[in-house]
Amino acid sequence: MIGHMAQDGAFVSSAKSLCKNLHVAISNEDIVRVVMEHKIDLIFGSLSLGTTSYLPSLQEVRALSPRVELIVFMQAFDIATIDDALALKCNCYFCMKAEEAQALKHLRDGIEVISHKNVFFKDTQYFNALLESSVVSQTDIEGNITYINENFTKVTGYGEAEVMGKNHRMLRHPSNPTLVYENMWETIKAGKVWCERVLNRNKDGSDFWADTIIIPFKDEFSGEIIQYIAIRRDITQMLEEKRAVIAKEQKAQEQMKLSEAKDSFLILFTHELKTPLNAIINFSQYLVKNMHRIDEIPKEKRMHLLEQIHKSATSMLLNVTNILDLSRLRNQKINFTYTLFNIKESIHEVVERHHALALENHCEVRFMDDGSEPYISSDGHRFGQIMANILSNAIKYGDSKVEIFLFSDAEKIEIIVQDDGKGIVDKTAVFELYEQDAKGITSMEKKGTGIGLNFVKLLCEGLNFEYKIEDSKELGGAKFVLTKKIREAK
Predict the structure, then answer these.
(1) Are 411 and 348 contained in the same domain?
(2) Looking at residue 79, what is its pLDDT?
(3) Staple partner for 405: which of 167, 263, 384, 416, CB 3.0–4.6 Å?
(4) Final residue in a domain of this structure, among 234, 253, 287
């Protein structure tokens, strides 16, 4: 505070309530000393006091600290030095006679201008470097743009004239959830810094991803938020490059996995075909070689050999049929034939067909129900295929026991198939093609082609059956739960 205002005790007292620090100087020497010893933002007061002109000290201040704001009041005799006064490039010039009564208001306005004026650019070289490489904008408390930097125009395509005074929401991308912006306003209105990765929309309609920081700036004295600074770092190219790398890696992994899966499938399927095919060849060859003495071979033995040939051929046909049906299912080229059938009888038939497999694996299969006779409208043949694949898996991977339960009520029918085997670790992946819950391609744990449960999954989805695998608490192995809702939702 200088000049006449500095001599007015009441004015100085009022001014102190507006400022964090207020220094009073009367002489030219005091003005220069204060500026040199303290960080001064504003010099306010008359250009002269009596016969003392402050032009020499103010000119020196301008040379020492060009950023200092100047608000001066001029009297009639100051007009003689008007050129030197204008050369100071003061922020405001007032006529002492006309405006002295409004001096406090002018001081308040001057302080407010300073507090609003790009305070974030001052005295921070690192911050300046950050801002130069970022997309920066400044808004008032309503979100209306008051400043943009050069990068803002380069990235968004909007010029200064197009955005000044406009609301910042013009950059919003419609794909961002409303909750993002609600959280943003809640955070910054509370005076906290908000950070988020946000998708924005440019002037030409294109998109750009940006790591965004919004900083609320408060008035130093009142503590009220006066503006927001948004600093964005355009990461669109980085994300695109990252996605490309990830996609390439995923594709390579998928190709490798598919290759391994195909190799595994070929090995397993070849084994599945080779075993029954060897039985067919050996047993039929034995019968052909001994045809000349066929009557000497006991009838029981001949029947056993023929049964084994039939069983092996049936097993091969089932595997081939499953693969063909699976291919048609995956390409949605299979039709379902709906009939009304007794689900208990259908399960009994499946259990009966797997009697030989159970004997071969030394496995006891028990079927229990709640005494009801539930009927459903579905594809009976495909339901049989679902149960056959589930049951054969339970028999092959169980140790010695498989239990089947059938429950029904007015709402649903539930079928549970559980075994006493080692269980299944990944209960989701096991439904994918060629996946089996065992290690190694030729592991002894793998006792099938790896297509059965994928076949079950596709059939269940086509026939609106719900399916899941759990751990069996009763037997300790795997527990397959198959559910059919009787009353379908409208």
Answers:
(1) yes
(2) 86
(3) 416
(4) 234
Domain boundary among 308, 329, 350: 329
Q: What is the model's pLDDT at position 220? A: 73
List pLDDT tens digits, range 129-153. 666 678 889 999 999 999 888 888 8
Q: Are residues 415 and 345 in the same domain?
A: yes
Same domain, 342 and 477: yes
Residues 428 and 320 in one domain: no
pLDDT digits (tens, 9 = 90+) for 273-308: 666 788 788 888 888 988 888 888 888 888 888 888
> Who contacts 251 (Cβ-Cβ below 8 Å, separation ≥6)?
none
The model carries a pTM of 0.41
- Contact of 46 with 11, CB cutoff 8 Å: no
Q: Show the tokens assigned to 113.
A: 């201008």
Structural domain boundaries enclosing 207: 119-234
